[in-house]
Amino acid sequence: MSKPTIGAWTPALLISLVAAASILSLSMGLRQSLGLFMEPMVRGGAVTVATFGFAMAVQNLAWGIGQPFMGALCDRFGGRIVVAGAAVLYCSGLGMMAKGGPLGLYLGGGLLIGLAVAATSHGVLVGIISRLASPAIRATAVSILAAAGSLGTFLVAPATQAMIERWNWHSALAGLAVLAASMAALAALFRRSPAGIRGELPRPDARGAIGEALSNRSFVITTLAFFACGFQLIFIATHLPNYIALCGLPPSVGASALALIGICNAFGTLLAGYLCQRWGNGVVLALIYLLRTVSIGLFFALPVTVETTLIFAAAMGFLWLSVVPPVSGLINGLFGASNFGTLFGVMFLSHQIGAFLGAWLGGLSYQISGSYSTGWLALIAVGFAAAAVQLLIGEQRPRQLPSP
Q1: CA 350 centroid distance within chain
Q2: Which H or E run includes 215?
Q3: Which helix (H) or strand (E) holds 281?
Q4: 30 close to 156: Cβ distance less than 8 angstroms
Q5: Which residue has the higher pLDDT, 137 or 385?
Q6: Using CA atoms, how far apart are residues 319 and 314, in angstroms rounded to an integer?
Q7: CATH of segment(s) 12-193+206-390
Q8: Is the pTM of this model over 0.90?
Q9: How far is the CA of 302 from the CAs of 16, 305, 308, 354, 393, in angstroms?
Q10: Rounded-to-integer distance, Cα 400 and Cα 120, Å
């Protein structure tokens, strides 16, 4: 068998890319639609705003803690078994959440769905594609995955809102569980790396890779700045529907805003991947944090109307997952693809600590003050801090891999 051509889009890569993008779309679409359940659950007396916010905080913390382990399992054993197990966790979590009450929300919507997302999101799926793609096309393949993966929110959020309105929130969660189950079938499409590419990758070594990464200045600073990304995005995903409802807008606007985030993110992610190749990963990350924070500040300062909400959603969507190409490019450039899942998981833990605080403190501040103002101001402060810290990184020096 001939060695795969450098830069070739092999059948194994293309099939796995379609499967990974579909799984990522479903996983992110389901997770980011959960905020639509806050208003009907609170209105029905099942939970309070603070309870819902804390459950989403637990979910993000479980995602963050589980990510390095899921990434390491995928690095070692492949993606099929990891994603299939995650589909079971996702269905179980949605089922527990549908039963109502704080306990079902904490364990199902929080712990189980958090672990499921850890195994069906970027840390695992980008790692699968990185190992299949040759270095010449790896950045392009990752950008396509991240862009296509964002389309799930565009489709799942309006469908979720329609199910809530047509049936009820309990039945809508059952409908989402059916979608979650389909991820197990999609995982069966993953293919192994071609022999020529597989032979160039060192054997995974999670412990050694973590030690090397934590001694690298670029990795550590990017990890610290990643906190702000999670803090901002999960506050918005969890609390935006309730915030605009408090401002007098109908629930359909919240669903439309989440859908718009999904569709705009596809274009923003592709552009981010292109700019990373021209400007470098650190500069692009700093620019994303800066533009995202400016958008948040403007939305908070202006009157909340249908128009300002949808413009804000479009801007945030453009910047939502655009961090994936520069972050994955930094990890692959510094350390190669063999331990990508593990190292992305370590970095992502910082992101999810921020996400935990964004979801929880957003609900807590509203419960105490009756307003989300403190939360919006906190988003602005941490966003500007992240942009400043990220600019401290010079462009990373690519890792010098031994010649095959």
Answers
A1: 13
A2: none
A3: helix 281-301
A4: yes
A5: 385
A6: 9
A7: 1.20.1250.20
A8: no
A9: 44, 9, 8, 26, 34
A10: 30
Burial 231-248 (b: 16+ CB within 10 A, else e): bbbbbbbbbbbbbbbeee
The rounded Cα 368 to chain-centroid distance in angstroms is 29
What contacts 211, CB < 8 A, 6 or more positions away?
Answer: none
Paired tokens of 216: 């690298």
- Rounded Cα distance between 53 and 140, Å, is 36
Query: Residue 112 burial (CB < 10 Å; 0-12/13-18/19+)?
Result: buried
Where b means 16+ CB within 10 Å and e means fewer, 121-135 reads: bbbbbbbbbbbbbbb
Residue 295 to residue 320: CA distance in whole angstroms: 12
User: H-helix or E-strand containing 191?
Assistant: none
**Distance separating alpha carbons of residues 302 and 367, to the nearest angstrom:** 23
- DSSP annotation of 37: G
CA–CA distance, 22 with 152 (Å, rounded to integer): 8
Q: What is the mean pLDDT of residues 13-30?
A: 93
* 194 CB-side CA count, 13 A: 19
Mean pLDDT for 328-339 is 83
Q: What is the pLDDT of residue 27?
A: 94
